[in-house]
Amino acid sequence: MRRTVAPWFLALGLVCACDQIEALREKILGGGGADAGNQRSPEFQGAIDLYESGQLQAAADQLQTVILTEPGNADAFYHMGRCYLGLATATGDPASDLSPEEAQSLDAFNTALTLNPRHADAAMGIGDLYARRVPTKRSRRKSQEPEAQRLARAAYQKAVTIDPKQPESQRRYATFLERLGQMEDAEVAHKAAVDAAKINPDLAPEYYTAYGRFLAPQKGRSEEAIDQLELAQMVRGEDPVLQGEIAALYSRMGHEYCDEKHYSLAEQTLTKAYKMFPDKSDPDAQKTSATLNRLRAIRGR
Description:
By secondary structure, the chain is mainly α. The protein has 15 helices and no strands.
């Protein structure tokens, strides 16, 4: 597919011709991810503010201007890639050509990596780009991995290799592996994300929660899931959503004890679950209450 050459790409070529790119790269290599340095121009900060407020086209337009004056700014190219990826419409056909927005996104991420080969976030961005082209519903196993899936996997692996302590890359990789049904590998990535994030109280709850939700649907792993969700709640404070999820897991454990005829343990666990439900009209809370009433009736005979 033919692409038009963006003005910022021409600007980058001029810098290369002037032998300035190596000096710029050396300046950037001290950091390993997006916004590794704290020195942002007012124009770049304004573009970031637009991006974070969801004004993607306006942010992309401003980033074009930033890149013309700062062609060695890897983080600007990274955010440009994020803008165009957000503007791109997801395709239903993973084999189709990249859309113009996807192509611009890929170019920007690759340029960020050219400027800073240790830009883990840019590699993660490429993974996100191709991962959205991998069907959510897995088809029958093929002898050869589909192209989009292969490219997404390679990009995520590159991101976590560049910076194993970058929790978001690990989590995105874990989510991708979950979609492929590769649960053991996904769990390794979730654990790596938690380990990387746990030293930061502002970040940690998000990754405890992601790992807990990964564990929750798996048979026999309710206690492990509760441990992660309770860690998140301990750091974050009272959160009714998390509390409801923890209560539902205790309820499930209680019903499993009941099925196994461990009635005393079932009653204790279900009582704990019912007390925890923030909304007693929740269907799980109602089911818990009904089972408790039956157990108490049996005990009272």
